[in-house]
Structure formats: structure tokens, C-alpha cells
Amino acid sequence: MNLVAWRMLTHERAKYLGLVFAIAFSTFLLENQTSIFAGILQRTASQILDVTDAEVWVMDPATQYFEETKALRDTDLNRVRGVPGTGWAVRLFKGIPVARTETGRFAQSIVLGLDDATLVGAPRKMVLGSWERLREPDSVVIDRAGYLLLFPGQPLQLGRRLELNDHAVTIVGISEAGAPFASFPVIHTRYSIATRFQGLERNQMAFLLARPAPGTSAEQLCASIHAATGLRARTSGEFAWDCIRYYLKNTGIPVNFGITIAIALIVGTVVAGQTFYLFTVENLRQFGTLKAIGIPNRRLMAMVLLQGAAVGTIGFALGTGMAAVFFDVFRQQVATRGIILMWQSVALTGGCMVFVVVLASVLSLRRVLVLEPAIVFRA
Questions:
Q1: Tens digits of per-residue pLDDT, 8-54?
Q2: How much helix, strand and coil, in percent to the nearest 5, is found in the chain?
Q3: From the CA atom positions of the chain, what is the Rg in Å?
């Protein structure tokens, strides 16, 4: 009977392909939009997640996310270092000066100034050169995307010169830093150099990076720092989620993507459900024939569910394949680097497609179960 169900499904090729296409298109759109949505949100915390040396970020109490900073006082560093449970704490500079090449091309950039002695927070994924060379005078490491933006069409090469707000520096390394939310070059250098790129201000320390001493958890250290200094302290994971929540709450990103995702789900459900329902209705005479020769309802139910499962599986596989090809092509592009097909999106979409198939099958089953075998004898 399974073979009969399959032949009924594929007998009219156009309708069969229409069913498969509806599921495949809905699958592709859902996986595409949810993965891009998650990838964009992850970019808002990319510079936090790139720092693997430290577990705790300390900032001004009013700071809500990474891009919004209020400088700390130099004395705050010693206050944090004196908190029980602190293994070590170092300063971190963040600024957005304009980077200019010798040819006059320029772009606003994200500059991270690392502690001179330890270089905590230096990029570990290097494409060319070494982050240890940051100890050289007036040296910087720039991310690959930023290099291609400032030197379009030119090969990756160390030793090129940049001006950061009229201060000349030399590129000693090219990194594979996480893509920021805005397409700015990401530049790492030493704290003492980075502070020269901004206007003269009394305080320029954006964050403090810390690691708990053995026996103290990052969460415990955060609570201790806040109690002792009044500063805001967050673990790397907590601070990353702070950034994501800020963009969810204060931008139109979730609304725009939410509308697209909802449309994909509705279209997939309505089109696939209606098409499968009409397919079953048009085959009522065949189901009536099977009933007339003594096939029980439970066997007919199994046939309908098999047809739905076959269409859903094939459509989901094709849609996931199209999404995988899409992301494999576009992840090679500089602008869309780091945005991948996430397994969570595949799993979520799979659950949605199961819902679509089950709903369509249930609606179809009702017509089959109440079907009178005598229908086959009517004109």
C-alpha cells in the first residue's frame, strides 16, 4: 500500500512538484532569514567575543552596550585590582578615529588599545604577520576586511602606512577579527599609542578587562567589583547578550526580520496545506476505491501521512540544500563574512515544517475518513 500511496502522490507531476517547491521555498526563506538575523545580532557583540583572555568586563554604570562608552578614571584600575578575587585587571581603550591611506582613501575605524605590558585582547586569528609585533613602535594590526576596504584590489601586505587622525602608524599584522555591526575596519594597537588618536581628554579608558583568581567564578567577581567600586561588571557572555538585547529593543531589526519570517511561515503553511488538501480531495475516488475493497481507515490514514511525510522530507531537504549553497557562496564575501547557516535555524525550521505537514495531513484526513465508498460508482 505504501507503493500505491507513492504512485498516487507522483502521478500528476506538476502538482507533486508544486507541493515540494512550496515546502522547499518556505524552508529556504525561514532558514535564510533566521540565520541572517542571528548573524547580524551576533555582530553587535563580535568585539567582546573576540577577547578570549579575559572573562569580566568592567565599565561605567550607565554603559548599556559596547558602542556606548563613558571613560573610566585611571584610579578605577587600581580599585578593581584591589577587589578580593581579582586575578588581574588591565585597561582597554576604544575609539573611532578616521583611518587614512597614503593615497587619500579613508574610513572611520574601530580602534582597540590593548594593555602595553600584556596585550590582553589581541586578535588570535591572524591572516598575516603576528600580534606580538604590536610591541614595535607605532604599530597596528588591522582586520582583513578593513584592509580590503582601505586598499581595494591590492594584495595583503605588511608594512603599509596609515594615518589615524594625523598620527602615522605601520601595519604589522592582518587579523581575521569578528565582523562588527557597522562595516568599519577593526584596528588593534597598544593603549599608549591608541590614546593619541583621539582628542585630548582627561580620561580615555573605555573598559577594564579582568580575570578572576583561582577559586573565584566570573559571576562572583562581577558582584564583588560592583559592591566594592560601584562600577558595572559583566561576564563576557552577559555583556554580549546586553548588546544583543539593546539592538533588539532599540532598533527595527527584529520587526523587519520578524515580518519576513512570519510571512514565510504563513505562506508555507497556507500554500503547502492548501495544495496538499486539494491533492487529497482530487484523489477521493482513489481512496474510495481502496475503501470499497476493504482497506481500513487506519491504513488510509497511514497512506495520507506517508504522502505528507514524503513531500515534507523532500521539500525540507531541497530547501536546506539551497540555504546551504546560499550561505557557502556569500560567506566568502567581505560584507557578509561570518554569517552562516546555523543549526538552530535548521532545527527550528524543521519543527515548523513538521507542523505544516501535520496540519495539512490532518485537514486532508478528515475528508478521507468520512468518505463513502459508493463515491466510486457515481458518475
A1: 667 677 777 878 888 888 888 888 888 888 888 888 888 898 898 89
A2: 55, 15, 30
A3: 29
